[in-house]
Amino acid sequence: MEGTWLASYTVSCAAGIGLAAVRASLAQRKTGLRPGSWAAAGVDTWLGPVPADLSAGWPHSMSAWDSRNNRLAWLGLHQDGFRGDVATAIEKFGPGRVGLIVGTSTSSIGRTEEAYSSLTPEGRFGSVFLQPAIHNPHSTGAFLAHVLGISGPTMTISTACSSSAKALASADRWLRCGIVNAVVVAGVDSLCRSTIYGFESLQLVSRGLCRPFDEHRDGLNIGEAAALALLTREPLGTPRARLLGYGESCDAYHMSSPHPEGIGARLAMEQALHRAGVDPADVGYVNLHGTGTRGNDSVESLALAAILPPGIPASSTKGWTGHALGAAGLLEAVLAMEVLTTGLLPGNLNLEKTGGDIAYPVIDDNLEARVDVVLSNSFGFGGNNCVLVFGRAD
Amino acid sequence: MDLFIAPRAGIWCRSVPGWDQFCAALATGEEPGNRLAEPLPDLLPAREARRAPLHVRLAIEAGTQACRENGVVMSDVMTVFASAMGDHQITDYMCRTLADSSPMLSPTRFHHSVHNAASGYWSISAGNRLASAAIAALSCTFAAGILEAASLAVSEPGTVLLIAHDIPASSPLDAVCSTRQPFALAFLVSSQRIAPQWRGMRLEYRETSSPWPTPEPGWLQKLAMDNECARGIPLLEALAGHRPATLAWPLNEAAHLRLQLGPGAGALPDPTSSV
């Protein structure tokens, strides 16, 4: 059958390092969010740091590539046999027949922040920060291509919180156009001052735990994640899922607020379902963008109500992971695909009473069901939207 | 991939404000002597144009030109925004402010810090709800931009606008970034021949090394060294010269993108390869 295969994937986020740990957190409904526990942030909020010492496995020989984002990518790469699966693809197709697309919003900006906080008396970067490969948006793309030995086309997509969802759409096009035989897609974003203080300046940060779709929701918790996937045109090994379709749109409304009627979100959902050839009634689970801000959740529920028949299980997993920003698209695409494998539908965390403005109910407890088709929503600043549809591999 | 490319492009650099002036400068071989003020594209409302960062204004200026020069409606194009470094001025503001122990960031400057700020402004100003990406790939940013625009154009009905734009770095970022001049270019591609003047173009990914394409006059060579996006100037020269051309941009030491441009207003003969 026609399609693009997910030959392999892995995620590392606040809810766990690798798929087994994340599955356990989801099953136990155990959040990975912690009160303001990341050292460099003075903002009163909860955050979703990965539960790992990122310096532990980082090789000192790679100081030219050193940044929190690249350390996180390195950690993620070594979970669930992912690096070996990429090596298998390179062996089968050749290093030039494998491409790489990274979706990230922060890239290594955290390292640039560090450089600015310890400028020399002349106002220049200290010598340890003279890393030309690091202080730019493609830092993690160049790093991953280097360590994986990929010599096919490599690029970074950075469209805020839809970045790594759109990376999957672009990878699908590269494969269908026959440019390469396999594409590694990565979503990597890491905690840094830019995003914590930035969202604080927009008054979008919750003082407590984020509560997507709740009556008393008051903002998001910023998280971090490394999500990686290997996409192929032909099945490779035992594929985990198939990418059936994607939809991409813009709101044409505002830089940091969603369109009040969710027009862009609706366009992306419609296009994704149409491309996938999936009837809306056949969707078995929706992983929502569900950030926990007043605006996003209300507007997203309007879009859902406009596109989907009532009663389809839908939830946000940000109560476990926080908002991993540019990595959220692929992180949540993987959590949606996991439903195809495990049959465990994660019910929204921290939902006590659904907000009166929420037009489409979300599930508040875990469900078990066999599901054939899942949807994953990602919406970003600039009104940039991407929706993905996945089906079972079998 | 077989495509068509619009015959005229958008361009802005310190001495050339648009396509006709670019073609005229090519004819003389000399850089025009004037030094232009930063562009204030009229697609943006006057207040927005003054507030929008240079990185955004450059992109909107080049994109607006490319659409108007070819009679293409700005709300009807999918877009790819390519920038190797993003907005240095905003990066500098953010990092300087965040170095403070209790920083107060401007919310407007924070939302300008996303790599897709120009894409957002374009969508809002042009009323465009179609797919839009913002990409980066260091020295291969222009090549990745064409690859992304072309794969989008052959996968979807409609026209794709590629905008490539970068602005110079000031201290201390100039120590880790080589962009020294502002530059933006923009052009349109489609899988359909939108108008008779659109030229056939074939893009192939090849697993061999290639040198960079070099612009003709010295001042354009300098520009191509000073801004990653100006690596695309040889394509603009071939469009301006109404001549067939074969160009190549390295993707890394082992691979490149090869672009064949057909003769003016003619389809590319004998497609021997679809990729």
Helical region count of chain B?
A: 9
Largest sheet of chain A: 11 strands, mixed
Q: Count all strands of chain B and give the number.
A: 9
Strand segment count of chain A: 16
Could you tell me the radius of gyration of chain A in angstroms?
Answer: 19 Å
* Contiguous runs where pLDDT drops below 50 for at least 5 residues of chain B: 271-275
Overall pLDDT confidence of chain A: 96
The structural class of chain A is alpha/beta
Assembly context of the chains: heterodimer
CATH topology category name of chain B: Peroxisomal Thiolase, Chain A, domain 1
Based on the structure given, which CATH architecture of chain A is correct?
3-Layer(aba) Sandwich
3D structure, described in words:
The complex is a heterodimer of chains A (394) and B (275). Chain A has 394 residues and is of the alpha/beta class. Chain A has a single domain, classed as Thiolase/Chalcone synthase (Peroxisomal Thiolase, Chain A, domain 1). Chain A has eleven helices and 16 strands. In chain A, strands 1, 2, 5, 6, 7, 9, 10, 11, 12, 15 and 16 form an eleven-stranded mixed beta sheet that branches. The N and C termini of chain A lie close together (11 Å). Chain B has a single domain, classed as Thiolase/Chalcone synthase (Peroxisomal Thiolase, Chain A, domain 1, 3-Layer(aba) Sandwich). Chain B has helices spanning 19-28, 46-51, 54-69, 88-98, 107-112, 117-126, 141-155, 218-226, 233-240, and strands at residues 2-5, 10-12, 77-82, 132-136, 159-166, 183-190, 199-206, 245-252, 255-261. Chain B starts with a strand and ends in a 14-residue tail after the last strand. Chains A and B meet through helix 4, helix 5, strand 6, helix 6 and helix 7 of A and helix 4, helix 5, helix 6, strand 4 and helix 7 of B. Strand 6 of chain A pairs antiparallel with strand 4 of chain B.
